[in-house]
Amino acid sequence: MTLPHWSYVAMLVFCLVGTLPLVPAFRLRVLRQPRRLLLTVLLAGTPFLLWDLYATHAGHWWFDEEQTLPWRVAGLPLEEISFFVVIPVVAVLTLEGVRAARRGVRPGSGRRREEAR
Amino acid sequence: MSYTALAALGVVAAIVLDRWVARTRITSTSDWWSAYAIIVFFQLLTNGWLTGRGIVRYDPDTILGSEDVVLVGDGRILFAPVEDLAFGFALVLTSCVAWTWLGRHRAADSTVDSAVDRATS
Questions:
Q1: What are the backbone angles phi and psi of residue A72, rounded to the nearest 5°?
Q2: Cα A6 to the chain's mean position, in Å?
Q3: Do residue B95 and residue A44 have CB atoms under 8 angstroms apart?
Q4: Nearest to B45 by CA among B69, B78, B72, B18
């Protein structure tokens, strides 16, 4: 495998690197609710994954073998399946980040409060 | 059905889900639209990466534009077919609706718990 094979993976990593720091910064309780998060991924991701399967098999779009990892499940690269896990998580983290910011939580304020105790 | 028709249907389905099925109505909140504004900015960047490099390619018969990958125009925004914006909107909205809907049930449960706590204390 060469570096270009990781092109799609790089995009997914970028999404997570950009949003996971919201959890400690705004003290989000998203990852502490694994069941709710898993159900969200299943409920929201599944219909879009089915759409993706249909569209890929109908030839609406296809994936470059040179820029994806070699593994395929039902004709989809593993990255494309991971997309329907990563994007719901990223969406929830962003929404909860906005909600926390609107409630007056400021980045890093949790750490200062803990230090004060 | 073309990608264009399916994408339009996806947007309508996500809004119907939010407003009338799950009744979360997050599309009435500025929290949702602020979050979406942030997400759509990054969607344009990441989707631009996927489509600009040709990691994902599209059949011109199913999209508004042609097979030419251009920065803007010919049915494309930052290399990506405009249909992708609709697909992304529907996926992100459905995710936030599901999360909020599941949280509402959790909140209802905790209300019951606290009522039980009060009754038993």
A1: -125, 140
A2: 17
A3: yes
A4: B78
Q: Mind listing the pLDDT tens digit for each residue in A56-111?
A: 999 999 999 999 999 999 999 999 999 999 999 999 999 999 999 999 898 876 55
CA-atom Rg of chain B in angstroms:
19
| Paired tokens of B30 | 């500025």
| Long-range contacts of A59-63, Cβ-Cβ distance < 8 Å, separation of 24 or more | A59/B59, A59/B62, A60/B2, A60/B3, A60/B58, A60/B59, A60/B62, A60/B63, A61/B3, A61/B56, A61/B57, A61/B58, A61/B59, A62/B56, A62/B57, A63/A8, A63/B55, A63/B56, A63/B57
Q: Chunk chain B into consecutive blocks of 10 residues (it has 121) and report each block's average pLDDT, rounded to whole numbers.
A: 95 98 97 98 96 94 88 91 96 98 71 48 44
Which residues 11-70 of chain B have a CB within 8 Å of chain A?
26, 31-32, 34-35, 38-39, 42, 46, 49-50, 53-59, 62-63
* Spatial separation of the C-alpha atoms in residues A97 and A8, rounded to whole Å: 26
In the structure, how many helices (H) and strands (E) does chain A have? 5, 3
> What pLDDT does residue A45 have?
97
What is the reported pTM?
A: 0.89
**Residue B9 in contact with partner chain A when CB distance is under 8 A:** no
Closest to B55 (Cβ–Cβ): which among A43, A63, A95? A63
Phi, psi of A63 (to 5 degrees): -120, 140
Q: Exposed (0-12), middle (13-18) or buried (19+): which is A112, by Cβ within 10 Å?
A: exposed
